[in-house]
Amino acid sequence: MKVGPYIGLRLLGMRDSPQRWLAQGPMGTVILELWGGANAEVRAQIAKAARDALPVTHPSTVRMLDAGSDDEWAWVAVVPDMAEDLATVAPLPLGLAARVLHDAAEALEHARGRGIFHGALTTRRILVDYDGATRLTGFGAARVFDKDRLTRSALPPFQTTHLSPELLALGPIDAQSDVFSLGRVLAAVAGGVESLPEALAVVAAEACSTDATLRHRTAGAFAEALKAATERELGELPPATALGAHMRAMYAATLAEKQRDWAAADVSGGVTTERQANAISGTWVALAEAFPSSSRPTSTMDLVRPPPRELDRNELERASRISFAVVSLITVMTLAAFLVGFRLLGPLTQTILVPAPPAVAARPVAPLPPFQIPPLTPPDPARWRVAAPVPTPGR
């Protein structure tokens, strides 16, 4: 299977969009998240939203490397990581559920600091790996919402019970939209609101208020409240290592199967390393700080070219005048060169280019008759008369 510049090696799961493929491409071996079945405009919007979120580099987010779209799919390339989504591993023990939601909230707070909101957080968008790390994915997917897709359950499919009322009403999303989703996911992962102790139930209820002004102001505030409530109920917030031990114990067979799949795909030979991911992410962070989202590169492949900068009116006018002057100068120089060349090379050009007249065959000349001297005839005495001498006086 070929998607953009990537070749799909093995399907990792497709119970819900996005599909996750182990793939090989210009970024090495990656996991490719695929969104399909939408029109070209929706696919382009998904890809743009993912590219806008590339500077999000929190440890609790998937390490995005590249994003784009083609005639069939919108795709996001991320660093390979063996993980399961919360919809698969739920319900979790209460303390481990609090750990997952706490780390997810901190990642959302990091994204908020860069002006990015998730807007479509569900149990499918939160992954947990076998080391206990939480990974958020699907940033920007809410930007492609409309009523038709919502009612048809077309791409992208969302678990609407986790989404904020303002998002379902097609209103603007902000940090408090993500807080609402955090509260809903907390209740779902813990096995229901009734499974939450009083302190945690208060946190979830506040986060899930239909009145946005009554919720926690930010995901960071939710994380602090969740940590305090968990420590009050359980004594401490369990570490990520405890979550990893739980994952390896509960899903040992799944982990072994994935390890076999990855070995068969020879992931170790070309996998994108953490250092490479950090370098790529750092480049995107620098671009995000230097340029608006509309002028950033559309793909990591474009990083070799500096993104264009929007010009103001004065710069455009100055550029227009310079362009006109350059074109005029080139025109004058071309005309002058033509005239000089015509004057100097005109005769030579005519000599070379004007064809010579065709040769005319010479007419044969008749030979002259031989020269003959006419015979001499003696003079006729009758015709000649000698005069008598004239006498000289005095003789």
What does this structure look like?
The chain has 395 residues and is an alpha+beta fold. It has one domain: Transferase(Phosphotransferase), domain 1 (Orthogonal Bundle), CATH 1.10.510.10. It is 43% helix and 12% strand. It has 12 helices and 9 strands. The chain has a 6-stranded antiparallel β-sheet. Strands 7-8-9 form a 3-stranded antiparallel β-sheet. The longest helix is centred in the last third of the chain and has 41 residues. The chain is rod-shaped and about 190 Å long. The N and C termini lie far apart (155 Å).
Beta-strand portion reads 5-15%
- CATH fold label: Transferase(Phosphotransferase), domain 1
First-residue to last-residue Cα separation: 155 Å
Which regions contain 5 or more consecutive residues with pLDDT less than 50? Answer: 143-158, 268-308
Supply the CATH superfamily name: Transferase(Phosphotransferase) domain 1
Strand order of the largest sheet: 1-2-3-4-6-5
Please state the CA-atom Rg, rounded to the nearest Å. 46 Å
- Overall domain count: 1
CATH architecture: Orthogonal Bundle
Bulk shape: rod-shaped
Q: Output the number of helix runs.
A: 12
The largest sheet, given as strand count, sense and whether it forms a barrel, is: 6 strands, antiparallel
Average pLDDT across residues?
75
Number of beta-strand segments: 9
